[in-house]
Specification:
The complex is a heterodimer of chains A (about 170) and B (about 130). Chain A is an alpha+beta fold. Helices cover about 20% and strands about 35% of the residues of chain A. Chain A contains five helices and five strands. The two termini of chain A are about 25 Å apart. Chain B contains three helices and five strands; from the N terminus they run βαααββββ. The chains are: A alpha+beta (about 170), B alpha+beta (about 130).
Chain lengths: ~170, ~130
């Protein structure tokens, strides 16, 4: 991977990229918490999916799962597994401070996911997160920065549920 | 789905009509405080038409074509997708999946995924591989 050149970027975006660059190569493993039946059902309702595997534990067990099954991208979709910062500490766009930065616009751009073990209710999830790439491109309205972060979601025993590479688009 | 799949086959499409209420719920359950998903003024300030559909909600819509169309005998093994155009509350998002490859034993199938809005613009494009569980 060629180190990107941030020199031509506008100051706020350049500062963001330099900060992000310093996080490359520093994976962090943390306990996210329990995926319980309520979280699974609420996520399924939010995506409008009434698949019985996500709502009825008995249906999931009949299909051969140990418990209520989670929709495929539940783990990847949850932004904050904690309680969140006080509102006064959030960035103006509502994101956790340091996540985006004042004056930047961010949005999800894509993802790669590889699934291993099925995720069922009461799993305790650990995530190893690592910022792995910063890719600067030219857009019609200015530079586009694509930031990719890898996640390995697993349980305490190291059984992997899902490996993800998530990419966000950052621009001024 | 128990019958064999062949290259070119399409699963039944899934259409989502994201509302502001759905986007609120999705933000809430994923604890996503980003204003572009619930604050219309902020979304417009960032240059969007309205509050944005979350990228993961696009993906959930696309993956549902696989889970609904294939049933519990199959599992998703891998997915790759890009959001190529944003969508907002009030849009109509039709997701499709077309078979692009089948393993010799028929147990692993590759799909091309797409999600288009009512104007025919692609919002999500991607690929997925599924495998028969038993």
């Amino acid at each position: 991977m060629t180190p990107p050149n941030f020199e031509h970027l506008p100051p706020i975006l350049r500062s963001y990229c330099i900060g992000a660059q310093s996080r490359i190569g520093h994976p962090e493993r943390r306990r996210l918490g329990v995926v319980d039946e309520r979280l699974i059902r609420r996520y399924a309702v939010a995506i409008g999916d009434w698949n019985p595997l996500y709502h009825e534990a008995a249906a999931a067990r009949r299909a051969g799962y140990r418990g209520l099954l989670a929709p495929p991208n539940l783990l990847a979709a949850i932004v904050d597994w904690g309680c969140g910062a006080p509102e006064s500490e959030l960035a103006p766009d509502g994101t956790p401070s340091g996540h985006s930065g004042v004056g930047l616009r961010i949005m999800g751009a894509g993802e790669e996911m590889q699934y291993s073990e099925p995720l069922v209710a009461d799993a305790v999830i650990f995530d190893t997160e690592e910022l792995i790439d910063i890719n600067v491109k030219s857009g019609k309205t200015g530079p586009l920065v694509f930031v990719s972060t890898s996640h390995r979601f697993e349980n305490e025993q190291g059984e992997i549920y899902c490996r993800n590479i998530r990419t966000i688009l950052v621009r001024e | 789905m128990t019958e064999e799949l062949a290259v070119g086959d399409e699963l039944p499409s899934v259409t989502m009509h994201p509302t502001s209420l759905q986007l609120f719920r999705y933000s809430a359950v994923t604890w996503n405080t980003h204003r572009i998903h619930y604050d219309p003024d902020w979304a417009k300030r960032e240059g969007h038409v309205g509050i944005l559909v979350h990228s993961h909600l696009h993906a959930a819509n696309a993956l549902r074509v696989l889970t609904d169309g294939l049933g519990p005998e199959w599992v998703i093994r891998s997915v790759s997708y890009r959001i190529v155009a944003p969508a907002s509350a009030g849009d109509t998002l039709k997701a499709t999946a077309r078979v692009t490859g089948v393993s010799d034993d028929g147990r692993e199938v590759k799909f091309q995924l797409a999600e288009v809005n009512a104007a025919g613009s692609t919002c999500l494009e991607g690929t997925a591989t599924v495998r028969r569980r038993t």
